[in-house]
């Protein structure tokens, strides 16, 4: 890891999977069991899970965990924060796999799952952060997901894979321009409000 | 609302309550039923709930909703984002109650509930944002909650009322110094990991 690249060399995500079911433990453990997490550092406690590694794997794994839980048909949500380049961060607790290909694509290929998602981008330490956010929100309109404004966030509706692609690309684009970027997201599937 | 004060005149919170139970709908509706939300503007969709009003009421209501859900004994979590002073925000969808006293204190007084919480403060548009965060994280050590560092967040453990007091005071202190501030949080109670 060179100092020039270190700000963007790894991405983290702190997230929690929420199955609204008495069987929440089984749903979480079964989803984790189906997902290849060998490409990142990972730690779970009673509040959340943290993964740290290459950006491609962080998005691949969060998407796969959500999809394997949602395919149970239960109302499932995931809330979390993606982060990159925090100047206070260390390079401890990171695994940078040599692998560049996402490992979970083949197992989720057949899962078609609609969801609603709200996300917000926070480019840190920049006076013109609003412009950096707006450039990305405009871009999201071209990715096969329905985009709508809400207070404090942008809403995306569509297939889960299209939603995660939008999150990933928006985050990637902003972090190329700004060293420290945070993105919050909440994604929800199978809500009885939609049935 | 004068233009001088408008940046701090109302606070919003976008949050979701997650009861890990087959009875999640009942738990959410019962909690809402016990909480006086008349002091804020409020809207719920299938992904999250947004409330906007005076800071004191926004913290009072989120705390009360979480406590009334957690007292069922079910594993319950809440994730969300508090925000103030976004330069893109409007004063639409806000209710500024004339009331200054939190309305839900008496009904939660008897609820003693332990929880774990992770939160992160994001002062926007400031080059010295790291210092602004660290000042607050140091302060939290004096509020009767156990404070520990984690990746991307600070962890608080203790009674739910002490945790919300810490969140509220930290947010308030930073927003007095920085016009646009965001705070993410995830709070979790009755997790089987702790039993």
Automatic annotation (TrEMBL), chains A, B:
Residues bound to thiamine are: 17, 49
Which part of the chain is the Thiamin/hydroxymethyl pyrimidine-binding YkoF putative domain?
Answer: 11-89, 115-194
Q: One MF term in GO for this entry?
A: thiamine binding
Checking InterPro entries in the record gives: HMP/thiamine-bd, MTH1187/YkoF-like, Thiamin/HMP-bd_put_YkoF
Which segments does the entry list as coiled coil?
Answer: none
Kindly give the SUPFAM superfamilies that the UniProt entry links to this protein.
MTH1187/YkoF-like
By what name is this protein known? Answer: YKOF-related protein
